[in-house]
C-alpha cells in the first residue's frame, strides 16, 4: 500500500504534471488539493505466545487539517502529551472479506521518528478483533501465504 486508496483513485487519468501541481506525497504523508490529508502508520497485531512480537500492517489514515497540522509540527519532536488523533483508515486490506476502508481509528504518535501507531475502534470487524485479541502464529503464516498468492497474481 504505497499510497492511500483515495490518492490512487484520485490520480487515475491525471497527468503527472497535474498530480504534482495538486498533491504532495512521500512515503509518510500525502496531501491532495489542500483538502485531504493522510499519514502512514502501523497497525500492530499481537502474536499470541510471543510477548515482544507483533504482526504489523503498514496503512494510511486520513486526518482533519487541524490534526494533520499538529502531527506535522510534532513529527520530528517529542510527541509526549499530544494526541491521539481521530482518523479514517484509508487502505482496503484485501485479505479480509469485509472492507477495511474507512474504519475509525486513533493515531498515536511515537518518538524517535517512528511511524505512528494506528489503533482501530473496537468493532466486530475481523481486523479490529485481531488487533484487540491477537493472532496465532498459524494466522501469521496464513496471512503471509495469502499475500504471496496476491503477489503472484
List keywords for this structure.
153 residues; alpha+beta; 5 helices; globular; seven-stranded antiparallel sheet
Provide an overview of this structure:
- With 153 residues, the protein is of the alpha+beta class.
- The chain has one domain.
- It has a 7-stranded antiparallel β-sheet with strand order 1-2-3-4-5-6-7.
- The protein is globular.
Chain-wise SSE layout:
Elements: H1 5-11, H2 16-22, E1 23-25, E2 29-32, E3 36-47, E4 50-63, H3 65-74, E5 85-89, E6 104-108, E7 117-120, H4 126-133, H5 137-152
Antiparallel strand pairs: 1-2, 2-3, 3-4, 4-5, 5-6, 6-7
Distance between the termini: 16 Å
Query: What is the share of helical residues?
Result: 25-40%
Task: Strand order, main sheet: write it out.
Answer: 1-2-3-4-5-6-7
Please report the total strand number as a whole number.
7
Broad structural category? alpha+beta
Spatial extent as radius of gyration: 16 Å
Uncertain runs = none
Domains, number: 1
| Distinct helical segment count | 5
Give a short overview.
31% of the residues lie in helices and 31% in strands. It is of the alpha+beta class and 153 residues long. The chain is globular and about 45 Å long.
Amino acid at each position: 500500500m504505497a499510497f492511500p486508496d483515495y490518492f490512487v483513485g484520485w490520480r487515475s487519468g491525471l497527468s503527472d504534471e497535474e498530480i504534482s501541481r495538486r498533491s504532495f506525497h512521500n512515503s509518510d504523508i500525502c496531501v491532495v488539493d489542500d483538502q485531504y490529508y493522510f499519514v502512514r502508520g502501523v497497525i500492530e497485531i499481537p502474536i499470541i505466545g510471543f510477548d515482544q512480537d507483533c504482526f504489523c500492517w503498514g496503512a494510511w489514515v486520513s486526518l482533519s487539517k487541524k490534526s494533520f497540522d499538529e502531527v506535522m509540527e510534532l513529527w520530528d519532536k517529542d510527541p509526549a502529551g499530544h494526541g491521539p488523533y481521530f482518523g479514517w483508515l484509508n487502505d482496503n486490506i484485501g485479505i479480509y472479506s469485509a472492507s477495511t476502508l474507512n474504519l475509525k481509528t486513533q493515531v498515536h504518535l511515537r518518538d524517535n521518528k517512528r511511524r505512528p501507531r494506528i489503533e482501530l475502534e473496537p468493532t466486530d470487524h475481523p481486523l479490529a478483533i485481531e488487533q484487540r485479541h491477537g493472532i496465532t502464529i498459524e494466522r501469521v503464516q496464513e496471512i503471509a501465504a495469502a499475500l504471496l498468492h496476491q503477489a503472484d497474481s
